[in-house]
Amino acid sequence: MTCGKPVGHLWEAYQKEAKSLGSKEALDKLGLERYCCRALFISHVDLIPRVGQFRK
């Protein structure tokens, strides 16, 4: 369940900030205040590297 706010463009910035600051501080710094946006980032599992190995 999301509010529909576009947040995909913040993913790389979140990853960089989360490594240095931690998740909560990174989300605060990026301006993600709504619980739905925060849950989207915290619960995301990046499967591209895992699935990419099966690409022809």
Description:
By secondary structure, this protein is mainly alpha-helical. It has one domain: Arc Repressor Mutant, subunit A. 55% of the residues lie in helices and 0% in strands. It contains 4 helices and no strands. It has helices spanning 11-20, 23-29, 35-43, 48-52. Helix 1 (11-20) crosses helix 2 (23-29). The protein is globular and about 40 Å long. The termini are far apart. The mean pLDDT is 91.
Question: How many H/I helices?
Answer: 4
CATH arch. level architecture: Orthogonal Bundle
CATH third-tier fold name? Arc Repressor Mutant, subunit A
Structural class: mainly alpha
Tell me the Rg in angstroms: 13 Å
Q: Give the termini separation.
A: 34 Å
Biggest sheet layout: none
Give the topology, please.
Layout: H1 11-20, H2 23-29, H3 35-43, H4 48-52
Helix pairs in contact: 1-2
Primary descriptors:
mainly alpha, 0% strand, 56 residues, 4 helices, 55% helix, Arc Repressor Mutant, subunit A
Give a brief rundown of this model.
This protein is mostly helical.
